[in-house]
Amino acid sequence: MSTFDYDLFVIGGGSGGVRAARIASSDHGAKVAMAEEFRMGGTCVIRGCVPKKLMVFAAGHGAAIDEAAAYGWQVEKGRFDWRAFRTRLDGELRRLESIYTRNAEAAGVTIFHQRATVADPHTVRLADGRLITTRHILVATGGTPFVPEPYADLGAMTSNEIFLMDRLPGSMLVLGGGFIACEMAGILQGLGVAVTLMYRGTQILRGFDSDLQGHVAAALMQQGLNLEVNTDLTALERLPDGRFRASDTQGRVREFDTVLFATGRRPNVDGLGLAEAGVNLGDGGAVIVDDYSQTNIPSIFAVGDVTDRIQLTPVAIREGHAFADTVFGGTPIKPDHTMVASAVFTRPEAGTVGLTEEQARAEGPVEIYMASFNPMQTSFIKAETKALMKLVVCAKTRKVLGCHIVAPGAGELIQLAGVILKMGATKDDFDRTMAVHPTMTEELVLLRKPTRTA
Ligand code: FAD
Question: Is residue 333 part of a domain?
Fold first, then answer.
């Protein structure tokens, strides 16, 4: 008989935590409890991937109306009704939240809808004061948006608030250059907001392939978005009417209805009691774990964004699943963090898997196969949106090390490219594959001559 109240206590009901709790309980028979302080489903469901993607669809319909008119449809483009969208969005998120709760409970997980902290390596303290003992603790508390210090108390928005706006602003300054900044800027511009995207680095989407970066930047600007790189805020003040006055390193002083900080995320560890329990934390508070998501304290594990490995939902889910199988299923499984495909939901989308050209070059000689073209769908109506199909190939082994796509539906396309690259496909495999015509991705199997070698 266990001397603990539970075999596993999961702190955080997001992507990683829910998967770990369900698998440990339903597949492996562990007695599991979980605490969630906000809403079940976590960032992805409540204020990340899901509401964001629904906004991507909303913005895309605006562009589709323009395209339809150019194709000959007699359509009149009205204004976007944010309130109607918000009402529907709120309903959908409530529906998903209740599914997450129901599924966890159906798997036998006890849910405490309150904050929990670590009291010691085998005890969790609930916000209502109860102490609960457990054989294992899983920290799955995710991350939280980071706003640089001088601007933290001005009431500017982060991605947490963007889905809760009462109405759409007329103008918005988006700060940051990562995928969340680019997606939000593109979406809001698509919904009719005049967006300025300001980033202090030389190019948006740092860490992505440079051709992909250039294509996405060009597409955003072509949609009318004001993209300002190599620029940073020097001051930001809140005006009496609630608007913002922003001064920047280019000497400009401008006013915006609202400001969105998409300037990075930090692991959610404040006040969690981890350091006090002896858990080693890295830069910025990330929980340091080994290949099996175990911390230096044997009973405490961590998965997902709080470990700052790869901050994506499928990665958190895979880590949570592997943890449950390892600790409760008797099958040690290391989550595989290589060749993780991901997408940036701009218009058009960008999809990426494997090494960037820059990373591959650092490892040895490469051949770059690339096509940049105006796809049939948009060239027909003289819209200037360029698609990109790019393969980064090892010059010695012919192995395809990276694939980068900018095109409508790139998020869907890169999922399959992910399988192909994970299988270790060579350029010759691509060459042997018959094209599907007429499509955009047929270019990927028709790239005969390298664009560049080195
Ligand atoms: P989370 O999902 O953040 O869950 C952590 C949970 O823990 C939260 O519900 C929180 O309330 C709870 N919690 C925290 N502390 C405590 C405590 N002490 N007690 C109780 N509960 C606590 N990823 C993708 O793969 N694709 C995308 O398109 C994508 N888009 C994104 C868009 C945005 C705007 C954002 C912000 C993120 C996006 N992500 C996307 C990233 C993705 O959401 C995260 O990687 C994923 O949610 C991480 O899961 P997690 O389980 O680690 O944490």
Answer: no
Q: Give the residue numbers spanning the domain of 356.
A: 342-453
> Does residue 1 surpass a pLDDT of 70?
no
Widest Cα–Cα separation across the chain? 73
Query: Is the pLDDT confidence value at 383 over 90?
Result: no
Sign of CA dihedral 230, 236, 242, 243: negative
Q: Which residue's C-alpha comes closest to atom 11 of ligand 1?
A: 38
Tell me which H or E stretch contains 392: strand 387-394
Is there an atom of ligand 1 within 6 Å of 38 CB?
A: yes
Give percent above pLDDT 90 in the chain. Answer: 98
CA 334, 312, 209 angle in degrees (round to 5)? 105
Number of neighbours of residue 224 by Cβ within 10 angstroms: 10
376 confidence band (pLDDT: 50, 70, 90):
very high
In a domain, 70, yes or no: yes
Ligand 1 neighbourhood includes 212 CB (under 6 angstroms): no
Report how far ligand 1's centroid is from the alpha carbon of 140 (Å). Answer: 9
Chosen domain end from 230, 263, 296: 263
Nearest Cα residue to atom 38 of ligand 1: 48
- How much distance in Å is there from the Cα of 131 to the middle of ligand 1? 25
Does residue 170 surpass a pLDDT of 70?
Answer: yes
User: Is residue 258 located within the same domain as residue 377?
Assistant: no
- CA dist., res. 94 & res. 99, Å (int): 9
Supply the pTM of this predicted model: 0.97
Q: Does pLDDT of 162 surpass 80?
A: yes
Do 47 and 189 belong to one domain?
no
Residue 386 in tokens: 């360029």
Per-residue pLDDT tens digits for 230-273: 999 999 999 999 999 999 999 999 999 999 999 999 999 999 99
Domain assignment of residue 151, yes or no: no
Same domain, 183 and 140: no
Which pLDDT belongs to residue 448?
Answer: 93
Atom of ligand 1 at shortest distance to CA of 271?
18
**Is position 83 within any domain?**
yes
Q: How far apart are CA 401 and CA 357, in angstroms?
A: 9
Closest residue by CA, ligand 1 atom 6: 12
